[in-house]
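Work Package 4 report. The design task specified in the project plan requires that, given a folded chain encoded as structure tokens, an amino acid be chosen for each position. We show below one input record used in the internal validation round.
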């Protein structure tokens, strides 16, 4: 999995190979952000968009994005 974009409300990623992901499906994503610590995050998401191997998700609990991701996303 490669994260293509990330925001306070969700994440978009690409995967290689075949998959069975579908709109409305819930998932638990584990990924690293490119901060100094290479922080590993685990987030609950709901799949909102599937375009071949590009998947768009919304964080299920947006009010609790966490301090590491919040700091990473600051302008």
């Amino acid at each position: 999995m490669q994260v293509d974009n990330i925001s306070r409300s969700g994440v978009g990623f690409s995967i290689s190979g075949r998959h069975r992901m579908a709109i409305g499906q819930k998932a638990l994503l584990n990924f690293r952000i490119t901060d100094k610590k290479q922080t590993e995050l685990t987030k609950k998401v709901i799949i909102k968009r599937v375009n071949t191997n590009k998947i768009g998700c919304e964080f299920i609990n947006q009010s609790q994005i966490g301090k590491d991701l919040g700091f990473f996303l600051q302008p």
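Strands lie at 2-6, 10-14, 26-32, 40-51, 54-59. Validation will be extended to a larger panel in the next phase.
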